[in-house]
Each structure stands twice: as structure tokens, then as C-alpha cells.
Design a protein that fits this description.
six-stranded parallel β-sheet; alpha/beta; 9 strands; globular; N-(1-d-carboxylethyl)-l-norvaline Dehydrogenase, domain 2; about 290 residues; three-stranded mixed β-sheet; about 55% helix; 14 helices; Rossmann fold
Length: about 290
């Protein structure tokens, strides 16, 4: 089966390798020339644009950074829907606002194709091991068609409901992650300002009721070591912004999330946006606390 893949950044590149390792032929494209160069050197066949990817593929995956980028890939110049896509299935794996997912459905179906969303929990190590957790929104019969592909990337697939439901669940997860990291950042900043060391605090926090697998996997980075990049601060900021916007449109107040968004925005504004999420506590200690001295 030929699989189209648009978006070959860190996650997309890892997915491409995983799919090829499992016998799929992958045809890919990205708007970033460096990403395409890296993919070409690893043996991925590159198409001229998103439209060409869809033309050559039965199932097309997209994993893009943000909502407007996904809109352009579907409806922009040389986008998926400029060509004949009748009978094709799109698996949209970005983290988007639910309304964006619902907006795409009639556009895709008007062209005789189908679309499901499948944002995932997990990052690069989970892609490599095929242990992502997919949160699917869309029709059950379309998910059944997508399973042979998704099962090579995931350890679990949950059908959350109609289009939009998968994105809503992913934003809910990332809201919790963002708030957790913000709380951890503030805890460590408070302790160090009172004379505690990071080593002392982490030894205790790893035994705290809210200790998590994420915290355990990121101890080195939290202490200041350079981490393996998984999810960067800028991308989490985008996800929290999407969640806050979705809440505003549906009447859900989000004061905690708004505070987390302000902290993430400060990190991005101060040049830390490309850092791994686990570097946010160090940024808060090193940069933000200094403003109050």
C-alpha cells in the first residue's frame, strides 16, 4: 500500500521510517526544504507538493504544526483537494482545534474522499517502537479502513466520537501536561529561592503523589542537562493557545490554562521556544526569577 505523508518534521520523519520498516511505500512532502532534504537522504520518495502526494496514495497522513498550515495543505495552492481525491482516505494527525477538524469534513467529502483525525499521545521514542496512543474522531467505518496503517504506529487506538472529538481529547491531555509542567517549574523555582538544591527537590518530588512517568523520564533535563528533543515549548504553547481559544468559543473559563499560556509565551519571547518541554523549569529558574531580584 502506498501511504502519503505530508509533514516530515521530527514526528513525521519518525513515522515515515516506522511505516517503511513495516512494508509500506511512503511518498512524502513538506513545505520545509531542509526537512525534505533530510527525508531524501534517508530514502523517502519526495513528491512535488501535497496535491502530488495525494494523487499517488490511497491513504494520506498529514501531521502539521498548526491549524492554518493544515488548511493550506488541504485547500491551498497545490493542496490535497485541488486534485482528484475520490475514494481516498485522509488521516489527519496534527493537534488542532476541534472546529478546524469539523470544518475540513464537508470540504473533503465534497470531493468524494473521507477524513478521520488521529492525534496521538507520545513522541519520537513511542513512534520508533510503534507505541503511540491514537485519539480518533470520525466515522467508525473510516477508522476500520485506517487500522492497518495506524496499528503499525500505535499500541492503542480509541475512537472518541465524531470528527472534532479526537482533537478535543488531545487538547484536554495537553492542558493537563502544560499545567503540570508549569506547577513543577514554580515548585522548583520556589525551593531554589529558599536554598534547596534541584537534586534535593527532585529526590523528594519523584516520591510525591503527583510524580509521573514524564517526570521520571525527564529528570536529567529538569536538572539542566540537554535532553533528547521530544515536544518543544513553542508547540505546547500553540496547543494551549488552541485549547484556551476553544474554551472561549464554548463558554469554558480557563484561568489556570491562561496563566500557563502566559508563562509559555514568555519562554518563547525570550528565545526558549525551541527547547524541550523539560527545559521550561530551568528557564523559569534562570530567567524569570531574576526579574524579581
Amino acid at each position: 500500500m502506498k501511504i502519503g505523508l505530508v509533514g516530515i518534521g521530527r514526528m513525521g520523519a519518525a513515522m515515515s521510517q516506522r511505516l517503511r520498516d513495516n512494508g509500506f511505500e511512503v511518498i512524502a512532502w513538506d513545505s520545509n526544504a531542509e526537512a525534505m532534504k533530510a527525508a531524501t537522504s534517508s530514502g523517502v520518495r519526495i513528491a512535488a507538493n501535497a496535491r502530488a502526494v495525494a494523487a499517488e496514495s490511497e491513504i494520506v497522513i498529514s501531521i502539521i504544526t498548526e491549524d492554518n498550515g493544515v488548511r493550506r495543505v488541504f485547500t491551498g495552492s497545490h493542496g490535497f483537494l485541488e486534485g482528484d481525491v475520490k475514494g481516498k482516505l485522509f488521516i489527519e494527525m496534527s493537534t488542532l482545534q476541534p472546529m478546524t477538524g469539523r470544518e475540513l469534513v464537508p470540504l473533503v467529502e465534497a470531493k468524494g474522499a473521507r477524513i478521520i483525525e488521529a492525534p496521538v499521545l507520545g513522541t519520537i521514542p513511542q513512534v520508533r517502537d510503534g507505541k503511540l496512543f491514537a485519539l480518533v474522531g470520525g466515522r467508525a467505518e473510516d477508522l476500520d479502513r485506517a487500522r492497518p496503517v495506524l496499528e503499525k504506529l500505535t499500541r492503542r487506538i480509541d475512537h472518541m466520537g465524531p470528527n472534532g472529538a479526537g482533537y478535543a481529547m488531545k487538547l484536554a491531555v495537553n492542558l493537563g501536561l502544560g499545567s503540570y509542567i508549569q506547577a513543577l517549574s514554580e515548585s522548583l523555582a520556589l525551593g531554589t529561592q529558599q536554598g534547596l538544591t534541584i537534586d534535593q527537590m527532585m529526590d523528594v518530588l519523584l516520591e510525591a503523589p503527583y510524580a509521573s512517568n514524564w517526570m521520571r523520564s525527564k529528570v536529567g533535563a529538569i536538572k539542566g542537562e540537554i535532553p533528547e528533543m521530544t515536544l518543544d515549548i513553542r508547540t505546547l504553547r500553540k496547543d494551549i493557545m488552541s485549547a484556551v481559544a476553544t474554551g472561549a468559543l464554548t463558554g469554558v473559563p480557563m484561568p489556570l490554562s491562561a496563566g500557563t499560556l502566559a508563562s509559555l509565551s514568555s519562554a518563547v519571547a525570550n528565545g526558549a521556544g525551541s527547547g524541550d518541554l523539560a527545559e521550561l523549569p530551568k528557564f523559569l529558574r534562570d530567567k524569570m526569577v531574576q526579574n524579581f531580584k
